[in-house]
Amino acid sequence: MYLASAAVLVMELLKLIACVIGLAVQEGSVAAAVRTLRAEIPSRETLQMIVPSGIYAVQNNLLYTALSNLDAATYQVTYQVKILTTALFSVLMLGKHLTKMRWISLVMLLIGVAMVQTQGEAGDKALARTVTAAVAAVAEKAAVAATAPTQSRFVGISAVLTAAVLSGFAGCYFERVLKSYKTSMLVRNVQLGLFGTLFSLLAMLSTDGRAVWEGGLMQGWNGNTWLVVLNQAFGGLLVSVVVKYADSILKGFASSISIVLSSIIAAICLNFVPSAEFIVGATVVIAAGYLYSL
């Protein structure tokens, strides 16, 4: 078993490196990219990235706490509240106007995703597709911890609801920063990545420092581990593109549809048999997307 905290740190480093390389290509040379970073990094805008980076770090810990105190089905259903919190913060922070039909479609999306993800044993396997890299990596530990006598449902529910609220706030805050300035998205991701790497390093040292010292940063890694980390890293960069050119609500729709698509692929490639509940939920998700577009 690889260390979750180490995987998150490597993921942040990969995103940072990818953005620096992308900036060098965009600017035409490494020297030009360095000049741009020297001008942009020591700025007030960089400090603004502390907020989403710090929130994501707290969110990861809250989700682990939730997974350690709740069964998979309860966790999956409750965490979908982030769909509504994102919409709420879009209205409060970004001044978006959502029609009654769009609010209805968002509630439908919440219900549909919850139905897709609660399928007994299949729901447990889907868990790794629904959470951040840090939480996905420790899902197996959390499943064991959830059977412990110290499990607290109140703590679990409180943690997941708080994480849902933070998810909505951080997403809308990041969207506002991306769209409020003319700064290159690559530079913005470098700014975010610097703090993300710092917080990830601190988290790794505090939780797994001794294990890393004794067994190395990449103990337990294999090809599948690299696939997970690379997917999370470059998937995170794609999220920035979606938020920049669309918005946080549409990002939520994209994530929800990806859950449906990944389950369909699993049905084709991994002999996963969809339940009636899954089929109804997938239909509701698609219908919600259509209604939101009207």
Quick structural overview:
Helices cover 81% and strands 0% of the residues.
Structural class: mainly alpha
Low-confidence stretches: 120-140, 142-148
- Give me the Rg, rounded: 19 Å
Number of helices: 15
Percent strand = under 5%
Shape summary: globular
Mean pLDDT: 83
Number of strands: 0
Count of domains: 1
Helix content: over 70%
Main β-sheet, in a few words? none
Secondary-structure element string: HHHHHHHHHHHHHHH
Rounded to the nearest angstrom, the distance between the terminal CA atoms is 46 Å
Q: Identify the quaternary structure here.
A: single chain
GO cellular component, one term: Golgi membrane
InterPro entries: EmrE-like, Nuc_sug_transpt
Subcellular location: Membrane
Keywords: Membrane, Sugar transport, Transmembrane, Transmembrane helix, Transport
What does this structure look like?
By secondary structure, this protein is mainly α. The chain has one domain (4-99, 133-245). Helices cover 81% and strands 0% of the residues. It has 15 helices and no strands. It has helices spanning 4-27, 30-40, 44-48, 50-69, 72-79, 82-94, 100-117, 121-126, 133-137, 139-145, 153-180, 185-215, 223-245, 248-269, 276-293. It is globular, with a radius of gyration of 19 Å. The termini are far apart.
